[in-house]
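Homework help board

Subject: predicted structure for assignment chain

Our instructor gave us this sequence and asked us to write out the predicted structure in C-alpha cell form, then describe one feature. I got the C-alpha cells but I'm not sure how to describe them. Can anyone check?
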Amino acid sequence: MPLGTLDRSPPPIFRQGPSALSKLLFFSALSLFLMVADVRFRITQPIRATLGTALYPVQWLALQPMRAVRVSSAYLTGLNQANTSSEQAAKKLAVQSLRAGQVEQLVLENNRLRKVLDLREQLATSVMAAEVLYDAPDPYTRKIIIDKGLLQGVEVGSPVLDESGVLGQITRVHPLVSEVTLVIDRELAIPVLNVRTGARSVAYGDPSASGSGLELRFMGSNSDVKEGDLLTTSGVDGVYPPGLPVAKISKIERRAESAFAKIYCTPEALVTGARHVIVVKPVSAQIPPRPATTEAAVTPKKGSNK
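My C-alpha cell output:
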C-alpha cells in the first residue's frame, strides 16, 4: 500500500477536542469578561455572599482552637497582672495613707500659721477638662491641639496639666480649639522650685537633638542639686499655681572650664502621649486689680506780704 494513502488522523478513541491554544484563548476571554462584568455590574456579588454565608460555620470551627489558646493565655496573663497590680495598689495605698495623715497635719499647721500671721487665703483655682485632638503640624515645635477654645472660656497663658504634672501652656486660642505649647518646647520657660533645697530657677525646653526634656540654665557648678530632685512651680510668675510637679533632675554635667552646670530634667507629665488634660485659669486673672490711687492735689496757701 502506498504511503500517501495512509490515514494520518488519530483513532476516535484518542480525539482531544479543541486544541490547547483554542482553550487558552477561550478561557482567557471568559475570565476577562467575568472580571469586567463583576466590576461594572457586580453579577458575582450574590454568589460571593452566598458562598461566604455557607462557609462561615466552617471558618468559625477552624478558628475555635486558636481562640481557645488566646483566651487561656489572656486569662493567665490577666491573672498574673491582677495579682501584681493588687500588691502594688496595696503598697501604694499604705504609702498614700501615711502621706495623707502628714498632709492633713501640714494643712492644719498652715492654716494656723496663716491666722497667726494674718495672711490672706490662697486663691481658688478654676479648672476645665479638655481632650487632646492631635499634635500641631509644625515639625519644629512641640505643640498639641485641645478641644476647648474661646467659646468655653479658655484664655491665652492658661496652664495645662495632666494627671502627673504640668504639661504646657495655652499660647493660641481659637473659637473651638486651643493650641498648647508643651514644656519641652524650646520657646517655653517655667519658674521652678527645688523641693529639697527651696532654690528657685527657671526650666527651659531642652534644645538638644532629642528635645524630650527640660534644662535648668544659669545654675552654678557648685549649686546644691542632685539627680532625682523634684522641681515644682514656684508661683512667682503669676501664671502657674505654686506646688505643681514639673520635672525631676535626671542628669548633671559639671565642667571645669564652665562656671555653669548643664542640668537636664525629665518632665513629670506625659508629654508624648497625653489624652485628657486640665486647663487651669492663670493666677494673675484671679488676683483682684490694684485699686486706683488718686493723690490729692495740695495747693500752697498764698501768704500775705506786709
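Reply (TA_rk): Your C-alpha cells look well-formed. For the description, you could write something like this. Residues 127-284 form a domain with the Thrombin, subunit H fold (CATH 2.40.10.340). That's the kind of observation they're looking for.
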